Amino acid sequence: MKRADFVFAIGFQGNAAIVDRRSRAKYGKLSSAELAREGLFKPAFCSALYSGDEEEMTEFLGIYGQAHGTEPPTVDQLKRVYGVYSDPESITRVETI
């Protein structure tokens, strides 16, 4: 899957990702930190997870914690909260809505 598709996936059905077309078009080029600053925490988390960059994830977690007035959560906690674990390798097509 492409980054923007993974970041704005709202669900999966079989081997297809269901992607929010409008959000992808409007916010698809923003970085993880920019998405978080816009309040788009799930897409920001997905973006940081997709990148695999530890620094990017650390920056996101800091922004998340600051915005919520708490200590930054762990990556595993956010995986459970958002139901996102990794880039699904079995996805072969993308459907936009």
Describe the structure in brief.
The protein is of the alpha+beta class and 97 residues long.
Written overview of the protein:
This protein is of the alpha+beta class and 97 residues long. 54% of the residues lie in helices and 13% in strands. It contains six helices and three strands; from the N terminus they run H-E-E-H-H-H-H-H-E. Strands 1-2-3 form a three-stranded mixed sheet. It is globular and about 35 Å long. The two termini are 17 Å apart. The model has no long low-confidence stretch (mean pLDDT 95).
Q: Oligomerization state of this entry?
A: single chain
What count of helical segments does DSSP give?
Answer: 6
Distance between the termini: 17 Å
Secondary structure category: alpha+beta
- Main sheet strand line-up: 1-2-3
Topology diagram in text:
Blueprint: H1 3-7, E1 9-13, E2 16-19, H2 21-27, H3 32-37, H4 41-51, H5 54-68, H6 75-82, E3 93-96
Parallel strand pairs: 2-3
Antiparallel strand pairs: 1-2
Helix pairs in contact: 4-5
List descriptors.
54% helix; single chain; three-stranded mixed β-sheet; 97 residues; 6 helices; alpha+beta
